[in-house]
Every structure is written in structure tokens, then in C-alpha cells.
Amino acid sequence: MGDVERWTPPDLPARWRVHASPFVGRRAEFRALEEAWAAVESGVAQVVFLEGEAGAGKSRFIAEAGRILHAHGAAVLLGSCVAEGGAPYQPFVGPVEALTSAVLAGELAEVPGDGGTALAQLLGTLVGTGAAIGSSRPPTTRELHAALVTALRAAARERPVLVVLEDLHWAGATSLELLSHVARHTGDVRLLCLASYRSTAPDRSAPLAGAVAELHRLEGVSRVRLSPLTEGDVAEYVTARTGAPPDRARAVAPLLLERTGGNPFYLREVVRDLVDAGGDGLAHLGSGELPTPQTVRDLYAGRLGRLGTGTRRLVEVAAVVGDEVPVELLARVAGQDVDETLEGLGQAEMAGLLRNLAGDGSRVAFDHVLCRQSVLDLMPRSDLLHLHVDVARALEAGPSSVPNRVERIAHHYARAEVLGHRREAVHYLTEAASVARARLAHHEAGQALARAAELADDDADRDDLRLLAAESFRAAGDFAAACDLDRAVAAQGSQRDRLRAAVAFEGATWRIGDLGFEAADLLATTLGQADVAETDPLRIAAVASLGRALTFTGDFDRGREVCARAIELATASGDRATLAHAVECSIIMNVRPRTAPEQRPRCEELVRLGTAGGESEWVFNGASILALVAHLVGDAEQYERSHADLVRAAAASGEPFFQVQSSCFEWVRAFVRGDLARAEAIGEELLQAHRVGTRAELTERLSVQTFVLRREQGRLGEVAPFISGNESVEQHWTPGLLALYVELGLREPARRVLDWLVEQDLARFVASPTWPATIAFVTEAAVWLRHRPAADRLREAAEEYAGHNLTVGPMLAAFGSADRYLGMLESTLGRPGAEGLLRSAIEMDGRMGAPLFVAYDAVALVEHLRRSGAGPTALEVARHDASARVGALHSPRLTASLERVVPPRRRADGLTPREVEVLRLLAQGLSNRALAEELFISENTVTNHVRSILMKTGVTNRTMASRYAAEHGLLDPGP
What we know:
By secondary structure, the chain is mainly alpha-helical. The protein is built from 48 helices and 10 strands.
């Protein structure tokens, strides 16, 4: 815990400290906030989403909460979003700037050893106020996100931190990703993030709703909805605001509640107008009439109508400028000097339209966002459009240091495009995209470029912008948006642009596992229509992409032929980029034993090209496939070298897709070592990789990975209630359905599926990228059911993999040595080669550093030796070896596999092997919860085990049970 005097956080906003309007109600909401803050003070971070309709009082609630928590010693960091012209990461700009100042001033302890310079540079890059870190490469998104988490941790050591993010419904994709990262990586930080947003149409944000729903699954994340004020709240407000006696306030409260709907903002404005009418403001209500407008727009129309022409013009200009308005800019647009402008602003403030934001009068803002919107709605369209032009020109002529200057100019010109300002809008939208890309806000860059494309007059310019927008969306992981733009260009662009679009389209689809049929058709069509020389680099690139697309359709032979032709042409062209693309297309395919010898040198060539040209994408693609090839053939040294290369390349590229691919390799490394907890953590991170496709796309791609992890943890029983055993074979991925039946012990359903598989032509399964998983799953079913016809057919089809490893896709899941499965099939068929294959599997998995798979190999060997009638000595040696390997790991499925093969020996005390394991961990002082996490079972199951242990051993408590374990030599795991 740091010295609370060390860091002096920013002061509270002036508008939070003084309120002319009383605050009433919200007792339940504050109770929820108090509970969250109590958790924060105990060291558990909280995220509270505050939702409500426009005018529900979100900003006022936040202001009251901020004042209270500030008085309790919290550091309050305020950020907000604007409806238009906002920058990437906009709600975090305020908090990041405050943290950056603290880092540079040395006010935060435990920042990196360079005095925080690198951290401050990363934070500056995040919000566009500083340069990237001084290295040979730009920072990655992950580094920018981590920088904010590091700064928040350092700040929270000094004092509890309240981060306020207002109007999150206007936040962009990058802001939501950053919020998600912060929420997932600050669980043990004294941090409360209070984020407000509108939950009603038309402002309701679908991306935000999805992000909130996803985060709501986490511990410490809650939602608080601001409901309408009650009749009692309205009466309390009337008394506090007007001084009316409580009984009179209660008498008029029902009518006010009816007319305002309990909306705090509208209630405030209606009562304000009543007070301005004279007296205590309630005289008009005596007859049950309410002489005020019934819509917010009408209410403000009345106030604007009472202003002079010059003052009204100032208010209208301010509404066009934005949420917060520099007085100097307002004066320039209005054609006034500053003194004259200040006088008019004073009148607008008295009318309840504007308020002063700074003590020096340099900035003003509307009293409420609904006020600004009403002013805009009331303006004639022609006046509104011309004012947008005036504001854009004033910003152009003003200082370049104005925050979000480029984005704001782009917004104003785009709004006025019908007045002939499309060219200016396109220019500034393109500049805004460049600014966003520099801050790794690729989604916002794509949006700006797509909008520019809509406004471009020239067809060629429009297609260029669409292709650039698609490139940004691909970098952001929004492949659907990228593909839509590429399709549009491919349908109506010039011949060259159609080829460019088709190549780009294929480059997006293979990354999300698309089968390649649409990409192949599009490329074949555009190549057929394009009058482009065969030696043209663009045509060569399109041919290479066609080869890759054909491969993904399952037409491996034709795909290889087309890619080989593209490589030949690219080599002759002498163009390095064209050659790299052709080589890349030839290796991004299913790695098979028969193609590995061809792929290996091409991977090495792509890595060389990328290294020489400083192209991290080429290095990553080459190194990742080279790692797959090395893993396939069991070359452990090459695998480790390539893995190191791909990790470095993924970090250097900063592209989310490559970072996800790199994480898949890390997942496999954890899984094969038996570190299931680490594998689960990586898997959760992968499923939250919103920057790489939708969650549905990710879930589908990672489904095999998730399945094998859940079954290793013994958790597939969770889905048992939803499985009938009568599921349609045609409507599911058959091998996966079969594997599920096997794990749930459903013999007849499994036999039904296996019989169906035997009757089918296995060619379509062999051609699938999931063929290695099919080998594993069908083998386990055939062995379990002693299904000799299935074992015979599969043994022949899987022969290609003898001496190789089984892996699905770019390390989406691994199954270890294929020789284990071939040996299991041989054993089931009663053939003599089983033992040799199983011992080969032990050697291969051991060489590849996969103790989990070695243990399965050892168990399979024991099962074979028992089935084949091996001598007692050989069987005992194998049993002892398998028991030792299984005992060193904590896999419920693996333990169960061994117990099926080698029934546990009965102990005198009657303890089962699992109860001995529980007793051993209990003696180490683990709680029931810790035991459950260690063994991947529920706490209720642990409780039952402990109860059984006490009964069987005759002891009465956990302490005596620990002593029993020590006395009976149970503290060290035996064979």
C-alpha cells in the first residue's frame, strides 16, 4: 500500500461540485454502489454498468457517487464519449491522461524501472498524445492494453480508484475491447469502473449490449438500472426545489409524475419553467392543469423563442460545434469578438440552456445532451448544414493542437456533403483513418474509410477506399465487414480492382475457416474476365489465392498444382512480395504427411523472405506452418525454433489474428503437459478475442479444443441432461457426436453412429481439416465397443499417419502420436504390431514433451498387454510405469482410464484411489474449494469424499485425517 499523499489525483469537475437542482431518490441504486465499493476497498475490483433512458439521471447519479467516493479518499478519473467526431478510445482519454501525468511526475510507485518513460509513451500512444515506444517496431494492441492495466494497478496501490466512463453507448469497438481487457485483468485491484449508457432506442448500441452481456458473466461485474422516480421522489424534489410545504408537494406530485413519466431531467425542466412563471411555481397546478409543453423539444422551443436573435444564434452554433464548446471557436464561427460572445452566453445560461465548464469561462456545454439535441432538431436544415461548413472551416483555420481536430473536421464536412463538400469530407475522413490506424484503432479506421467511400464521386477512388476500408476491418478482425466491401468491388469495379478485391476476399475467408468455395468461384470468375497478362504480379497473386481457396474446398491436388504454377510465375517475375504471397498460399493448407516434405522448404523460404524484408506477417505464416510440419513429423528441435519465431512475429505484427494463432500454440503446450488450468485460462482468453471475428465464429473454430479440454477435466457430464442419444447423425459433426456418446458411456447410441460411419465413404472425412481428430475419436469408440469392422476400415485409412503426430488445424487441438491410435486398432484386431506401435508412441510423445500423451500411451500399452495375454512380469512393469505417469498428472479422465484398465487394489481401510488422492491433498491443508479446483470436481463431490474418508478411517475431523495419512504413508503419491 502506497502513501496516499504521494499521488494527487485530478480535482473533481466543477459541474460535480455545484448543482442548482436537488438530488432525490436512488436509495436502492446507492445501496448497490455501496456494496461494490466495499468490495473494492477489500481489494476486489468491480465494474458497475449504469443504464437508463435519456434524462434518467445517469450523469447526476455519477456526479453524486463521485463526490461521495472522493470524500472517502478515492481517486476519481473521468472519461466520456461524444456522439460524433470522437476519437478512438475516447472514454479512456481523460483517465489515461491523468495516469500519464502521474507516471511522468513519479507519483506512482512500482512503475517500470526506467522511471515510467516507456509506460508513459505507451499510454500516450493509446490516446494519441505521445509517440510510440522507442524501439524498432510499433507497439501492439496487447501492449497498449497492458500499459493501462499497469498504470491502474500502480495508481490503486496509492489509493482506491474510481474510473468513470460516461455515455458508453457512443463508444467505438476499440473502447469496448479496452474495457473488456481492463475488466478481465484487474480483478485484484482496488478499482471501481462506473460506466453509464443509454439502454433505449435509438441510442441503444448492439456492440455495447453484447460486450455488457459478456462481461456480466465475470465476478465483480453488475448492472444497475435507473428506473423512473416515484411519486414520493417527485414530492421530495418539489419541496426541495420550490420550498413548497410537503403536503402541497404531495398533492401536485401525481400530476407531475404523469406528465414527466418520472424522468428526472424532464421533471427538473418542467419545475424550472413553473418556478420562472412566478411564486413557488405551483399555482398553475391547483386546477389540475400543467401549462408546460409535453415534449422536451417544445420545452426548449419556448426558451429559445424568448432569446434575442444574436443569443439564439450563439446557442445554435454551440449545438453544431459539439458537447463541449471552446468559447474562442464559438466566437470565430459566430463572427463575434469574445466579449460579445461571453455576454450572449450569459443570457443563454440564465435561460437554462448552457453552463460554464471552466472557471475562466473558456469552455461551455449544454445543460443536458437532450437540450443540445433539441436545439439541433429545431434548426432549419439549410441553416444546420451551412453551420457545419462554418465550423469545419473554423477548425481548419484554427490551431492544429485542438483535440480530435481531424475527426471533428471530417464529421462536419461529411454532414454538409450535400452542399458540395464531399471532396473535403473524403480528405479528412481518410486522414482520420490514418490517425486511427496509428493508434491501432483499425475498426474506427475502417469505418472512416467506408464512409469516405460512400462520399467519393469517382468510381476508382470509391473502390480504392473500399479496399482500404476492408484492409482495416481485416486488421481489426471484422472479417464479415471486410468481405462485404470486397464483394462490392468485385461485383462492379474495374478489371484490376475486381482482381484486387477477389484476392483480398480470399485472404479474409481462409482466416475464419471458410471452406473456400465462394472465394474459389470469385477468383475463377474475375481471372476469367480480366484482360491482364499472365506475368502481371496482380494476376499471379490471384492465381496463388485461387490455389489456396481450392485447397480449402478439399481439392488438394488441384490446389497444389495451381499454387506451384503461381510460385513458378512469381519466381520468374523477380518480385519479392508476389513470390512471398504465392509461397504463403501454397503452405496455408492442411498439413498432411504426404505434403510435409514439400511444405517444409517453402515455409523456410517464406521465413527467409519475411526476415530479409522486415515483413512480420510472412515470418509468422512461414514459422507457424513450419512448426506444424515439425510437430507432425516429430522434429522437436525444429518445432521449438519455429515456435519461438512465430511468437516474436505475432508480437511484432500487432495483428490480432496472429496473436490468437500464437495463443493456440500456447494452449497446446499447456494441454500436452497436463497443465489443464493454464489451458483453460488460455482458452477463455481465446474465446474473448473479439478482434478476431465474432464469438460465434471463434466458438466454432475452437470447438474441438474446448471439447478435448472439458473431457480431460471430466466435465462433459454437465451436458448429459441435454443429450438424448437419438441425435441426428446428418445434422452434427459425426466424429464429435460419437466422441460425446463414448465419454457419456452411451453404448447403443455410440454403436449406432459407428455403424453409420462404417457404411459411409470415409473420403469426405479424410479430406476434412478435422481428419486427425476423426482418427482419434473413432479409434476410441471402436476400441471401447470392440467394433472390429470400424477398426479395420479406420486402420487402413489412417495408415498415412504412422510415425506422425495428430493435430487439428493451426494447433486448435492436439492428440499426440498417431501410433497410439494405430496400436489400439491393431490390438483390437488381434494383430502382432500393436505393442511396437504403442512403444513408438511413448517415444514420440516423450520426445515432443507431452507427458499427458505419454501417460495415455502407457495406459494403452497396459490394456494391450492384458488383452494379448502378456506375462505377469511384463504386465506389472507396464502397470507400474503407467500408474507413475498417471499419478504425476491431475487429469480425472486419465485417472479413470487407468482405473478401467487396472482396477484399483482394495485397501484394508476401504479407501478408493480418488479418496486417497483427496486425503493426500487434505493433509496439505487445502480447503474444499481448493481441492475442487485441483481435481476439477465440484465442492459437493469433495464434501462427499471427505465424509466417506472420515467414516472409513474412523477419525472425526480433518486434523486427525491428516495425521492418519502421515501414519499410513499416504503423503507421497505411489505408483
